[in-house]
Amino acid sequence: MELFSDDFTDGNALAGPLREIFAMDMTQAMGRCVNCGDEGPVAGLKVYTHAPGLVARCPSCEEVVMRLVRSPSSAWLDLRGTMSLRIPMPVE
Amino acid sequence: MRLPPGQYLTEDFPVLTAGPTLRVPTDTWEFVIVTEAGEKHRWDWQQLMALPSERPTVDLHCVTKWSKLHTRWQGVSLDVLLEGVDTAADYAMVHSYGGYTTNLPYEDLLHGQAWIAYKFDGEDLTPEHGGPARLLVPHLYLWKSAKWVRGITLMDEDEPGFWESAGYHDYGDPWREQRYQGD
Fold first, then answer.
1. pLDDT per position in chain B (183 positions), as tens?
2. Which chain A positions have a beta carbon within 8 Å of B99's beta carbon?
3. What's a Pfam family this protein contains (chain A) (predicted)?
4. Closest Cα of chain A to B87: distance in Å?
5. Percentage of residues in chain A with pLDDT exceeding 90?
6. Interchain proximity B168–A52, CB inside 8 Å
């Protein structure tokens, strides 16, 4: 089995949709992949937008780390592929 | 011409995918049905090709609101594949190469409603559209017609698949506009 002709964009495609949910820009948050353990910024994820929702995959192992489905009345955020998200906060 | 509520007509065939397009060689391809008792029924590509096929012409309805009418397919009916399978399951989970899953009631696989399709418009099904073979269940939204299908697990209890666990409807009937959970 071989992967080819990827039609994805980078994680900056998540900036607007995540801004709807979180009160800050999430693209600089550092996520750790459950599958391979690699850590990187949300902006570095591979995001498939031609789908019923946004599907973000780990750039190292291709596993799904985030799914975001926007219905008219809800946003569904599935993070089961993300071990943790380290979100930069203003120093108090 | 009738369209389900909220749908618009398209003449082209949009490609939607939750991940990279897969190229699955037919010489290593296999399709496995696993019953709720764990019994496995396996077909390789040659065995699938040797089964009687049908040529359904069906309408497709994608949850992203496009519909494509009168599409011509060739494939093996699930009635044929499930004929010798001893099961009393109520639900099924469809599995794809690449890890995609989708769930549906077992009954929706029967009675001429579902096929393992390997030709579209007279040509081999391209990888972009799920070739070498995809599930075709056109009476449900198209996310249920899993591309790059590799097997079906029969289950006593319902479980949500890839999109069903992220807000999409468990059943997905386009005529009842069952797009999201709660619709």
1. 689 999 999 999 999 989 999 999 999 999 999 999 999 999 999 999 999 999 999 999 999 999 999 999 999 999 999 999 999 999 999 999 999 999 999 999 999 999 999 999 999 999 999 999 999 999 999 999 999 999 999 999 999 999 999 999 999 999 999 999 999
2. 63-64
3. DUF6510
4. 31
5. 82
6. yes
Test A69 with B168 for CB contact under 8 angstroms. yes
Rounded to an integer, what distance in angstroms lies between the CA atom of residue A29 and that of residue A66? Answer: 13
Of B122 and A3, the structure prediction assigns the larger pLDDT to: B122
**Which amino acid makes up residue B122?**
G
Radius of gyration of chain A (CA): 13
Among the four given CATH numbers 3.40.50.720, 3.30.1120.10, 3.90.420.10, 3.30.230.10, the one describing domain B29-176: 3.90.420.10
Residue B64 forms contact with A (CB below 8 Å): yes
Residue B63: list chain A partners with CB under 8 A. 52
Q: Do B163 and A69 touch (CB under 8 A)?
A: yes
Please indicate whether, in this complex, the C-beta atoms of A78 and B165 are within 8 angstroms of each other: yes
Helix locations, A1-92, DSSP H: 15-19
Using an 8 Å Cβ cutoff, are A55 and A72 in contact?
no
Beta-bridged to residue B94, according to DSSP, are B102, B152
Rounded to the nearest angstrom, the gap between the alpha carbon of residue B53 and the centroid of all alpha carbons in its chain is 16
Range of the domain at A42: 9-82
